User: What shape does this take?
Amino acid sequence: MSSFETRLQSGKRLGDYSTFGIGGPARYFFEARSFRDLEDAFAWVRSTSVPYFILGKGSNCLFDDLGFDGLVIRNKIDFCEMEDQRVHVGAGASFSLLGKHTARRGLSGLEFACGIPGTVGGAIFMNAGANGQETSTCLHDVLFLSESGDQRKIFKEELSFAYRTSPFQKLRGALLSACFFLHRAPEAHGTQKLILKKRIETQPYQEKSAGCMFRNPSRDLSAGALIDRCGLKGVKVGNAQVSELHANFLINSGRATSADVKALIELVRTRVYEKTQIFLDLEVRIL
Ligand SMILES: Cc1cc2nc3c(=O)[nH]c(=O)nc-3n(C[C@H](O)[C@H](O)[C@H](O)COP(=O)(O)OP(=O)(O)OC[C@H]3O[C@@H](n4cnc5c(N)ncnc54)[C@H](O)[C@@H]3O)c2cc1C
Assistant: This one.
């Protein structure tokens, strides 16, 4: 039996791997700790045709109560090498710690990352951002493994990113690692601490959620402000609730099911559309 097959698990509850705390069992579950692990996982996927899903920290996903009838590959490729202003990091490394450690070294570009509870791979995939900064800005290149098993270094210039959008959302494969190029700024650590303080004050940080549920309709109009204006803060469906602190956060206030969250999403969308004629697109990915 191959190392992949001996480490292949089944029946893992996805709620334990998502910041929402929601989700039934995965038929197959595998933790990839190296590039080789991911290559082996894709080889298995090709030979079995089992559907797969690449999971980081599950901080931008809503899983179904019924689980996932396929293979969940959890990216745990976690390393970090820093040399001057260049940082080479595994796609499974913590994005929040990356932001904290680079800022502490007086390197600017990823201060906003501190407090975003995802992996580096998830942040690049989503082009995560906050406080006017986003992941792609200081990205230099990535190493990408296609589903067919080809590894390729792709430079930022070859990729087009936009608000919470990356080309990887349309590609089949997995991010393995990334290089960021940061610039020196003695104030980076102070900025990072201020951003984190503001985040803790304005977001329901201790609650179970997947961060902002909806994309902002435009640069000047936040989804949170729209939902708030429609009087929806605190509104509940089952055990899912619109946060009282930040209206774009839907939280699992107890034993919420994926059906509760989906019904709340529809309620919010309908009310916002009725009052403003604006349709809110999802930022969170529903599996
Ligand atoms: C409290 C809280 C605060 C948040 N604040 C912010 C914020 O300020 N700004 C912001 O942008 N987001 C924020 N988020 C959302 C979330 O943390 C980010 O989108 C994060 O980048 C997702 O990373 P992840 O590893 O958890 O990805 P996951 O949720 O695990 O996956 C998200 C998507 O990325 C794909 N993916 C993950 N890793 C890889 C990989 N290696 N290769 C290919 N595809 C991959 C998955 O298949 C999935 O489609 C917040 C979430 C929470 C819970």
Q: What stands out?
A: The first strand starts at residue 12 and ends at 13. The two ends are 30 Å apart (CA to CA). Residues 258-276 form the longest helix (19 residues).
